[in-house]
Amino acid sequence: xxxxxxxDIAKLAxxxxxxxxxxxxxxxxxxxxxxxxxxxxxxxxYEPNQFAQSLKSKQTKMIGVIVPRLDSYAASRTMMxxxxxxxxxxxxMLVVNTAQQTERExxxxxxxxxxxxxxxxxxxxxxTPAHLQAIAAIQIPVLLIGQQHDSVHSLVYPDNESAYALxxxxxxWGHRDIIYVGVAEDDIAVGQARRDGFLRAFNxxxxxxxxxxxxxxxxxxxxxxxxxxxDVTDATLVVCATDNIxxxxxxxxxxxxxxxxxxxxxxxxGGYDFTEVLHPSLTTVHLPYRRTGSRAAxxxxxxxxxxxxxxxxxxxxxxxxxxxxxxxx
Length: 329
Description:
Layout: H1 6-13, H2 17-24, H3 31-44, H4 50-54, E1 62-67, H5 73-88, E2 92-97, H6 102-114, E3 119-123, H7 129-138, E4 142-145, E5 153-156, H8 159-172, E6 177-182, H9 188-204, E7 208-213, H10 218-230, E8 237-240, H11 243-255, E9 265-267, E10 284-286, H12 289-305, E11 312-314, E12 318-320
């Protein structure tokens, strides 16, 4: 059943939406009008949105930031950019961690609204109907980073486009037997868009691809590298969905006595600063996490002031072609 809204009450009672809002918030409404509104509320069994009502009071100059994990390089750099820009405008950042649990993400949307934050920047991994319901209920600006949805303002990394560009480069270098190490598909950006960009490039070149799945944790990727070190395979390149995965694979290959790129090449994705000083330095896609954080702060403040803001905005990327991937031709 469709949830009854203030607009519905106003239409059925034949009054303005502002009049209904004034009645619900204890304002002065004439007797006849009040009786009309009360009759419609009884008949429709309307229940006021408690979150929307609680937010009628003055909000703080706080921006809530929801992050999936605190030990993430990408999240920490993004938060640095957010904090720097918000500070310039006299706002503060309130960070909450969800430990990559969808239920906690939804819970924190409600909790931040109760704390009267002016807006929320959400570093998401997936968007479910429960997320959308929470966003609709709290009725404050929400900006999603890293994922996208038609109903939520989103600041999106060009995962598919950049993965395709890096994949094409590998094909030009002569790699045709590939092992792709990705993450679960419930992460739309990394598990689907990024993977699909790579596979599109590989398939266009007729490459043979073997896919494997792990988590975002370095420790979970080490056994994959160790397994690959002992496998009898003709693969020349291991393409990893993140730099963390690549670091784990590199460690596992080293544990198994394999040299990169002499025995097999390895690439990452993300462009963490320290990957440039590794030996061998890691071929990867650089995503501008810190600049993205600054842009996110600008966008949430635009939403707060009612400034026109696109529903979907893409960031940039840069290929970092380094020592960990060998050119075969």
